[in-house]
Amino acid sequence: MKAIYTALITPFDQKGQIDFNGLENVIAKLIREGERGFVVCGTTAEAPTLGLSEKEQLLDFVIRKAKDCSIIMGISGNDTAEVLKQLKYFENKEVEALMIVVPYYNKPSQAGLFKHFDLLLSSTNKNIIIYNVPSRCGVEIKADTMLELLKKHQNLIGLKHASHNFEMVTQIKAAYPHFLILSGEDGTLKEGLDHGMDGVISVSSHMIYPKLEQFMKDYDYQMNLELQDDFIKNFAQYVFIEASPGPIKYMLSIEGYIENVLRLPMCPVSKETEKKLERLVNNL
Prior knowledge:
Largest sheet: 8 strands, parallel, barrel
Distance between the termini: 24 Å
CATH superfamily: Aldolase class I
CATH architecture: Alpha-Beta Barrel
Number of helices: 12
CATH class: Alpha Beta
Shape: globular
Oligomer: single chain
Strand content: 5-15%
Strand order of the largest sheet: 1-2-3-4-5-6-7-8
Structural class: alpha/beta
Radius of gyration: 18 Å
């Protein structure tokens, strides 16, 4: 079956501290439903608002509570030296890979992106996944840059591709058929798989993991997926109706798993959106 990783939220309590009980509730729910892959401290986790010690606490907690699961640790930053410090800090943790986002805000050239990732990849033997998310970073790593990195670094094992540039997937897969490419866009999951992606790092899976798993199984058997695809696309529209993770946190709070708390500059969804999400959850 194609891979499904849940990009875990970070629950907070009313004082704004990490709610580890809520996180345990979410992890236990997903494991009961069959999930065996988690991403810690990605965008969905509100990683820019988390301190380094908090990130370590979160990772250690997920490792303990999600035994026998595949865990990917997210690293982010737009200062290469600072990202390198984070990489060295987490490289000895028991995780499948470190996922490093394309530097944001600076808008580096492709040459800058190559040098950034070349340095990071050369500095560790840890498996590395690059996270390409141009809508948030303001710049997209290109297929040629990825291919140059792949020629040089065996520990570059994957790409999280949150982009509609499917031609890039085709180009990379033509040269490296076994290179792992995971969709970062729930709403275009089928299109990504059709172009050769190997699975998804999902936000929607917090609420609809069983449906995603069934979709992946049916995809492998080349079944008619029109109705399932429509459902996933529709659900994803609501998951991202406002800035993530606001909507998915509200849905999980409706079900009683967590409190509806985010850290500034992120904030809970509007009252209008709450009503829409309540109707959605009630109809699941």
